[in-house]
Amino acid sequence: MGLAYNTYLTGPNIYGCKNCRSHLSNYDDIVSRNFRGQHGKAYLFNNVVNITTEEPTERNMTTGRHVVRDIKCRGCGETVGWKYDKAFEKSEQYKENKFILEAELICEVE
Ligand SMILES: [Zn+2]
């Protein structure tokens, strides 16, 4: 199938898609490990590469109302987390334009 991704990250700790191992983000880009996704533990990242974003939808979460988009791995089409477009609570606005990756769906890659 050839190279399934365009961006190739370098560094000691790269996170990739568990399914196809496309590079997704970097250990240094983790903002918080204190999140929960649909599959359990999830991390908040400053930046994620090699993904496609879905249409924005409004979701009520335990931390309030948010506009989010599901994000999919560009390599295999698997949903790996979501992106925060907008948070309505002031205390949650640090998450805007950041990304959640579900720990269960990613792995450390070389
Ligand atoms: Zn993938």
From TrEMBL:
UniProt xrefs under PROSITE patterns: YIPPEE
InterPro entries: Yippee (IPR034751), Yippee/Mis18/Cereblon (IPR004910), Yippee_fam (IPR039058)
Domain Yippee: 13-110
Keywords of this entry: Metal-binding, Zinc
Highest taxon of source: Eukaryota
Homology family: Belongs to the yippee family.
PANTHER family xref list: PROTEIN YIPPEE-LIKE CG15309-RELATED (PTHR13848)
Protein name per its UniProtKB record: Protein yippee-like
